[in-house]
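Write out the 3D structure for:
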Amino acid sequence: KFINLSNQKVNVYWAHQDGQFERGGARIAAVLGPFVSRGIGNFHGFRIYFTLAEMPNVAVAKFKTNGPPGDNVMVYDPFYVEGDMAATNTNIQHLAPEEQEQYKRLRKTLLFGKEYTKVTGRSYLANYPRPRPVHFMWPADYFGQQHWVTTRETHFHTIPPAASLGRIQHHGKSRRLTPDQPRNLQEFRTPGQSLLNMTLTVLSCAPRVLEIQNFMSPVEVAHILQVAAQKELKLSTTGDAQMSEQQIHDSRSSKNSWFEREESPIIDAVYRRAADLLRIDEALMRHRIDGELPDVPSTKPIVEQMQLVHYSVGQEYAAHHDFAYAPLHDSYQETRFATLLLYLNEGMKGGETDFPRWANAETFEHLRVVPEVGKAVLFYNILPDGNLDDLSQHEARKVRQGEKW
């Protein structure tokens, strides 16, 4: 994580070797506005350089990313005097009142972070204070631990007629299904089955990663691929508006598209099943009408659209986090709470979902999840205490043969 505690714009560069920055060989990693925090997916051994935007060849701070997990917050602070708060306060007097407030809030975060690291051994990556998650989190106390949850959203066994698979047009309370109501298009689901049991198996405790076999049926997978065939796939982006096209391509070379939940009744059923898996009210995962959930101030869904990603030979998504660093003024610090990956094919070489920093006492090898048709993988980007989980860094490994959906 990079933090700019100055009132000037700064550039952050990274290099593989000592002297690479001085020779002009470093690469831009981030551009930070005044009192802004950002981060990148990185590995130990990189050299990090902060420069003022108007003096890009002069480093004002240098770091090396080879420290322990609790030592990966890198700060540029031209005002701070170690052990002398009086001198520090004098240095910030020329800042505008709003800038002074921003500086003090970031300093408070760093102060809390020191104590947090002493207790947990991890870096504090959020802005202090950040509330705990309000949603349920499946425990991950040991490898192989299993949990079971049932859903009335049973598998589709037969593909319904095309006329039944049109876009869902209605919204609000009319979408809600009570437990005793039949599911949508029930006659095309597994005969004689009113409940589907889903088994979650813990693959990793830190980060918290769980695997769900047969989350989707082959019919559902085939339907999603059929819908995908009608979509225009575009080069994937990283959600980082400050990265150049070349930087984006270097880290993520796949193509993708997006599905709304209302795309078809089958996709709607997958969302409902995911809500049961996560133990979240399905109404939170769609647009609602005023008053449908009185205790929820917004009527917008708390989930993103379903993202369909395709990887051809040679394509990958380099190690990254799914969470984002919130601006100081965002008291909720909205970011991705959890990620649910759904695999639509198998048999390719490469293409595993890789967690390079998982904690275990047996191997230095990465945790690698092999794609299987219909399998889902759930991982949390947030810790139960509200901090961002640095160990949730993951990558889609390069496809060496075949393709990956």
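The CA atoms of residues 136 and 278 lie 7 Å apart.
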